[in-house]
Write a structure and sequence with these properties.
2 copies of one chain form a homodimer.
Chain A: H1 5-16, E1 24-28, E2 35-37, H2 38-51, H3 62-71, H4 76-79, H5 89-103, H6 108-123, H7 127-146, H8 150-154, H9 159-166, H10 169-172, H11 174-188
Antiparallel strand pairs in A: 1-2
Helix pairs in contact in A: 2-3, 2-7, 3-6, 3-7, 5-6, 6-7, 7-11
C-alpha cells in the first residue's frame, strides 16, 4: 500500500456519510428538547440492539445487526427523513438509488456488501433484519411515549396507526412488543 | 417476563446514555461548521472501524471493537469532554467513577461486561483496544486536517504534540498512521 489509493476512496465514503449528522428526524431526544439527527439515532439503536439482544425472537448474529443499524439511514443523505407512517412506493425507489450512489463510493466488494446488507434490512425477511427493524422502531416509539405521544399528535397519526405500524416490533422482538403495546394502551386510554 | 422489571432497568440505562448527544467535542464536522457531539462521533467511528478493519495491525474481533467504540465516551456524561492533549491523572479517576455509576444502572452481569470492556479500551493493551483506540484517534485527526488544523491552533497545540499524541494510531493500525503522518507532515510543512 504505497500510494494509499484504496484508503483514500474509503475515506471519501467516510467523509460523505458525515452528512447524516444534519438529517433531522421527527422525534425528539429523551434528554433534551430538540429533534434527533440520524447519526445520533443510529448510535443509539446500535447500542440498544446489543443491550436488548436477549429479546430477539430468533437466533441472530449481533455483529451483522449492529452493522445494519449503523448504515440503515445513510440513504437519507439523498432522500431526507420521511415519517414511517407516510412512506410511499416512489420512496423505495429513491432509497435504492441513494444506496447505490452512496455505498457505491466504496471499493467494489465493500460497496456490494453494504448494498446487500441495506437491502436485507429493508426487506425484513431474515432474523437479523427483523430484529434490527424492531430496534429501529422501538427507539422513536419510546421517545414519543416519553413525551406523551407529542410527535404523533403533531403529525395527526391516530392511535390505531401507531399500534399497527409499531406491531412490526413483534416480528423481531416479541417481548419488547408486549411491553410497548402495554405502554401504548395506557397512553391512549 | 411478566412484569418487565429487568427490561425497565435496561431502558433506564438506554435513556440515561441519551445524554451523550449533548456532550460537544472540540472538533467540528466534516460536512458542517459546527462542533460534533459524542453520539455522532461514536456512530462515525463504529462504522469507520468496520470499513477500515483491513488496516488493523493484528487479528481483531470486530464485534468487540464496535461495541467498545459505541460505549467508550459514555463516561463523559459525568466528566465532560476533555481534549486529549490535556488529560491528567484526576481525569482517569473521575472516568472510572463515571463508568461505575452509568454502566452500574444495568443488570449486574451487563454492568460488569461493559465496565470491563470500557477498562480494556482505556488500557489499550489488547489488540481490540489498540485498534479501537486508533480509530477513535484518527477520526478527529482527519476532521482537523480537513479544516487545516483549526482546532489545534485554537487550543495552542503544537505540531510536535499532534504527531506525538496521534502516533498512537500506529499501535493499532500501522498503515493508517503512515497515511496520517504523511498528511500531517504536508500540513505542517
Amino acid at each position: 500500500m504505497r500510494d494509499f489509493e484504496r484508503l483514500e476512496v474509503q475515506l471519501s465514503f467516510i467523509k460523505e456519510v458525515d452528512r447524516i449528522k444534519s438529517i433531522f428526524r421527527k422525534s425528539k431526544l429523551f434528554s433534551a428538547e430538540r429533534h434527533e439527527n440520524d447519526a445520533e439515532h443510529s448510535w443509539h439503536i446500535a447500542l440498544m440492539a446489543i443491550i436488548l439482544q436477549e429479546y430477539a425472537g430468533r437466533p441472530i448474529d449481533i455483529s451483522r445487526v449492529v452493522t445494519m443499524l449503523l448504515i440503515h439511514d445513510i440513504v437519507e443523505i439523498d432522500t431526507g427523513d420521511t415519517i414511517i407512517y407516510k412512506k410511499g412506493h416512489g420512496h423505495v425507489e429513491a432509497e435504492e438509488k441513494a444506496a447505490r450512489r452512496i455505498f457505491g463510493i466504496l471499493p467494489d466488494e465493500q460497496a456490494d456488501y453494504f448494498i446487500d446488507l441495506w437491502r436485507e434490512f429493508e426487506a425484513r425477511e431474515s432474523n437479523d433484519a427483523r430484529y434490527a427493524a424492531a430496534i429501529d422502531r422501538i427507539q422513536p416509539c419510546l421517545q414519543n411515549m416519553h413525551r406523551g405521544g407529542e410527535t404523533w399528535r403533531e403529525h395527526g397519526i391516530k392511535p390505531q396507526q401507531v399500534i399497527e405500524v409499531n406491531s412490526q416490533i413483534g416480528e423481531g422482538a416479541p417481548d419488547l412488543w408486549k411491553y410497548v403495546k402495554r405502554e401504548l394502551d395506557t397512553l391512549f386510554e
